């Protein structure tokens, strides 16, 4: 095998977009199941995605070290490790193992077996007991991945010269540099090559400035460092630095443009593939502006707002990277529009004694004149502009906290408008005619 590239997708329910993208990219998958909890909703969703794309997978039955009295032996096979456990641990392990096997059969219609007893890899799902913490079963898992790849993916793992590359995510690194997190499946990708990717606003044509690969950190607390490469050869994960990719869309294919005559056709092709996916981001009108440090996080926040307490929160704009002064000024347009609308309504009421174009007290759009920064920093000039223009910037690493902040603003604006309406009614009844008072 030329190599093994592992894509780790988040298990949180709000990152289903990344799981779907990971499923569509992979040739062989590992579904991680907590032995203490069995199949959860996110696990079932992942299995359905894999079956939909006809992707073979195995199950890592993880956290076996949490069994009371478990003794770890990571240098041994997991079969030997299980045999060395006490009778009480063996009984508890067998009970939880059989429970997971039963869930796979009853809920998903899948036949499954522990890998060292499986005689049919194509029809029976392999289950590997593992512990990510102690390392038990990890050697068995890696061996099985290589073994199954050589048996089941022989036609897919052959190297080809034509570049096949997919954008897994778009993110900001080192505080300000936007990169494409890409998977080079096949071929050679080089610096200075002319590339085409799909974007939120249309196709993006640019040139590769640099190709970065991650240097393995010494420990989990060390900062990630990157090595610069003149070229990379599939299969490999790479960060692509280029100009004008801030609005690139995750999920896009990346094409090399060698002949300008094929440029138009490739533009249409890359956007046609993406259109159903990015259409939800084509926003306008009044709504909150959302900012995140990666496309995956942006999608998660967007979907969370879209389904917030069965009352979707409108979104007017999205962006990747730190919150900038431009984001603040663009968001302030909502406030300007609300002020202009209020003035027009005042003139209308003064002239006609009633509103024709709409009741200004029923509009709560000013509550959405704010920026939600999910794990995204705020640039100093943006903070200054936000204070001057009265645009709140809510920064949090928790999705729920961001939603609650918007709901609190809506409640505050409603109360303010209600107070203004009550005062206007009192003034009308005090100074106006009974008919005017009744009409209010």
From TrEMBL:
<protein>
    <recommendedName>
        <fullName>Tr-type G domain-containing protein</fullName>
    </recommendedName>
</protein>
<feature type="domain" description="Tr-type G">
    <location>
        <begin position="1"/>
        <end position="153"/>
    </location>
</feature>
<dbReference type="InterPro" id="IPR000795">
    <property type="entry name" value="T_Tr_GTP-bd_dom"/>
</dbReference>
<dbReference type="GO" id="GO:0005525">
    <property type="term" value="F:GTP binding"/>
</dbReference>
<dbReference type="Pfam" id="PF00009">
    <property type="entry name" value="GTP_EFTU"/>
</dbReference>
<dbReference type="GO" id="GO:0003924">
    <property type="term" value="F:GTPase activity"/>
</dbReference>
<dbReference type="InterPro" id="IPR036925">
    <property type="entry name" value="TIF_IF2_dom3_sf"/>
</dbReference>
<dbReference type="GO" id="GO:0003743">
    <property type="term" value="F:translation initiation factor activity"/>
</dbReference>
<dbReference type="InterPro" id="IPR027417">
    <property type="entry name" value="P-loop_NTPase"/>
</dbReference>
<dbReference type="GO" id="GO:0005739">
    <property type="term" value="C:mitochondrion"/>
</dbReference>
<keyword id="KW-0547">Nucleotide-binding</keyword>
<dbReference type="InterPro" id="IPR015760">
    <property type="entry name" value="TIF_IF2"/>
</dbReference>
<dbReference type="GO" id="GO:0009507">
    <property type="term" value="C:chloroplast"/>
</dbReference>
<keyword id="KW-0342">GTP-binding</keyword>
């Amino acid at each position: 095998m030329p190599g093994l590239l592992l894509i780790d997708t988040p298990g949180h329910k709000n990152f289903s977009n990344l799981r779907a993208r990971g499923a569509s990219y992979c040739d062989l998958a590992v579904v991680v199941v907590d032995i203490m909890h069995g199949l959860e909703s996110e696990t079932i969703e992942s299995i359905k995605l894999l079956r939909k794309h006809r992707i073979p997978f195995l199950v890592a039955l993880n956290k076996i070290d949490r069994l009371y009295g478990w003794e770890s032996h990571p240098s041994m096979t997991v079969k030997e490790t299980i045999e060395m456990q006490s009778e009480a641990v063996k009984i508890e392990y067998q009970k939880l193992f059989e429970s997971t096997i039963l869930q796979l059969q009853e809920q998903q219609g899948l036949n499954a077996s522990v890998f060292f007893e499986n005689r049919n890899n194509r029809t029976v799902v392999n289950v590997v007991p593992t512990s990510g913490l102690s390392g038990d079963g990890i050697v068995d898992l890696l061996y099985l991945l290589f073994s199954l790849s050589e048996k089941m993916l022989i036609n897919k793992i052959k190297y080809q010269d034509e570049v096949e590359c997919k954008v897994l995510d778009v993110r900001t690194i080192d505080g300000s540099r936007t990169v494409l997190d890409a998977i080079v499946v096949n071929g050679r990708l080089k610096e200075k090559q002319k590339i085409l990717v799909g974007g939120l606003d249309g196709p993006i044509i640019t040139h590769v400035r640099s190709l970065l690969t991650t240097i393995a950190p010494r420990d989990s607390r060390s900062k990630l460092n990157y090595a610069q490469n003149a070229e990379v050869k599939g299969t490999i994960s790479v960060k692509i630095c280029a100009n004008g990719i801030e609005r690139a869309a995750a999920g896009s294919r990346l094409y090399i443009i060698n002949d300008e005559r094929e440029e138009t056709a490739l533009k249409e092709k890359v956007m046609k593939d993406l259109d159903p996916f990015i259409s939800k981001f084509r926003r306008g009108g009044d709504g909150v502006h959302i900012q995140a440090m990666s496309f995956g996080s942006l999608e998660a926040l967007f979907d969370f707002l879209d389904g917030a307490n069965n009352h979707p929160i409108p979104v007017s704009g999205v962006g990747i990277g730190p919150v900038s002064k431009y984001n603040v000024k663009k968001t302030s347009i909502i406030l300007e529009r609300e002020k202009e609308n209020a003035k027009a309504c005042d003139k209308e009421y003064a002239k006609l004694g009633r509103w024709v174009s709409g009741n200004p007290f029923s509009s709560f759009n000013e509550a959405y004149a704010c920026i939600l920064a999910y794990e995204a920093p705020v640039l100093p000039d943006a903070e200054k502009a936000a204070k001057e223009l009265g645009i709140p910037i809510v920064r949090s690493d928790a999705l729920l906290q961001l939603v609650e902040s918007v709901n609190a603003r809506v409640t505050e604006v409603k109360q303010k408008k209600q107070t203004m309406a009550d005062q206007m009614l009192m003034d009308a009844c005090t100074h106006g005619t009974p008919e005017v008072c009744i009409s209010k």
